Amino acid sequence: MTHPFFLTVAYAGGGFHGWQIQTSLRSGQGDLWKALRAFEPAAPMPQGTGRTDAGVHARAQGVLIHTSRAWEPYRLLAALNAHLPKDIRVMQARPAPEGFFPRQHAVAKRYIYRLGLGPAEDPLMASYRWHIHRAAALDLPAMAEAVAPLLGTHDFSSFRCTECAAKSPVRTLHGIRIVPGDGGVDLIFEGSSFLMHQVRIVTGTLVEVGKGRRLPASLGSVLAARDRTQAGLTAPPEGLCLEKVWYEARWGMGEPSPWGERT
Description:
Elements: E1 3-11, H1 28-37, E2 47-48, E3 57-67, H2 73-82, E4 88-95, H3 102-105, E5 106-116, E6 130-131, H4 140-146, E7 152-155, E8 170-181, E9 184-191, H5 198-210, H6 219-225, E10 240-247
Parallel strand pairs: 3-10, 5-6
Antiparallel strand pairs: 1-3, 1-4, 2-3, 5-9, 5-10, 7-8, 8-9
């Protein structure tokens, strides 16, 4: 008999070649499994909610693990963190119900892409933002106007990378908010799920709008084209962070999704 636990894992992505375990490159999944096996040698591989690309950060990667005994959650958290490097941490541990799988039962995610603005890059934020070197300010109202055609359920082929292995390019985007902050701006994406590089490609395209290189109304045509070459550049990974995941309410793993659940 094994005991399932659900972990909330955070990591600074700069030191990882993504979440998914790899043969010879460092990954979040690999580091966590190594830490778990230090005191649970027979533990199966931890299962995450979803992949993050090399260099992408996470504040709320949901992970299912199985242990051979019924740990007290805080002691399990402390034991894992004692065997993990400082750039990856278990932030929360709780028992998981039988039959719960984070990847299958996630219904919505929030990603934040952070842009740095201003005449010089903040060295303390350089690992967590894409700094836009530009004398003139980005046109944030134009960027906010441009997102309207992307909201809802669409074929996002124009905003997926050529290596994306998803069976369908159709995704539901609940919202994109543009929130100015100290020295930069956050682009907050909320949706049912995302294609490979989708957030980064949308971000790169919106930055082109902000620079005046594209009209805000043009993104509808880009979406309709279903052609990756029609969209903008892929924003670099260091600005992107997986911030929150919502799961099916029946499992009791956090608050329910504000947008309901999939049909």
